[in-house]
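pls design
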């Protein structure tokens, strides 16, 4: 069985936490974080909610173009990211893939022969990534980039009753802390 890091995209690896994927640019440390994870035996899988598609604000074609651009950027010099998985639904669709639900993780378990107890979710939204990690049985890491500080502050009530296993300044700090701590 293998291990993976389920990365949030926007606000965690770059871009604006609630902005459009069309404006996504990676943080300067993102590739280094992905590389360190890969060097330590993790698959890097990006899971992203893209409700703009379901709301008709972003076409699936434009999303796919942007996801391909981001994947190419991360994998330009070496293969760092296996794939980007997307939930295109709105809250009202009641799908099983919109974070904090675990459908995107479940779709990866068999494909990558993953041991969930060895997997990690890293993101900037407690209400999405930390709750998803808890429901999936994974370690949950909250980063303070993107919406992370607000998630710990004024939006803490949206994930009351749940705790992050690790709180990190950013994705690079998250990987370093993860590698130094028992899960």
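designed seq:
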């Amino acid at each position: 069985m293998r291990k993976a890091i389920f990365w949030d995209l926007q606000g965690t690896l770059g871009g604006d936490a609630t902005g459009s994927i069309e404006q996504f640019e990676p943080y300067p440390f993102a590739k280094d974080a992905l590389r360190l994870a890969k060097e330590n035996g993790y698959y890097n899988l990006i899971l992203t909610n893209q409700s703009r598609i379901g709301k008709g604000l972003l076409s699936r074609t434009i999303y796919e173009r942007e996801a391909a651009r981001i994947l190419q950027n991360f994998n330009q010099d070496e293969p760092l990211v296996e794939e980007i998985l997307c939930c295109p639904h709105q809250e009202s669709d009641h799908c099983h893939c919109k974070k904090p639900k675990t459908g995107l993780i479940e779709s990866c378990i068999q494909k990558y022969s993953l041991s969930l107890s060895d997997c990690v979710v890293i993101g900037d939204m407690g209400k999405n990534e930390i709750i998803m990690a808890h429901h999936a049985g994974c370690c949950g890491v909250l980063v303070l980039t993107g919406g992370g500080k607000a998630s710990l502050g004024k939006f803490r009530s949206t994930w009351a009753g749940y705790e992050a296993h690790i709180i990190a300044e950013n994705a690079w700090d998250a990987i370093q802390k993860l590698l130094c701590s028992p899960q």
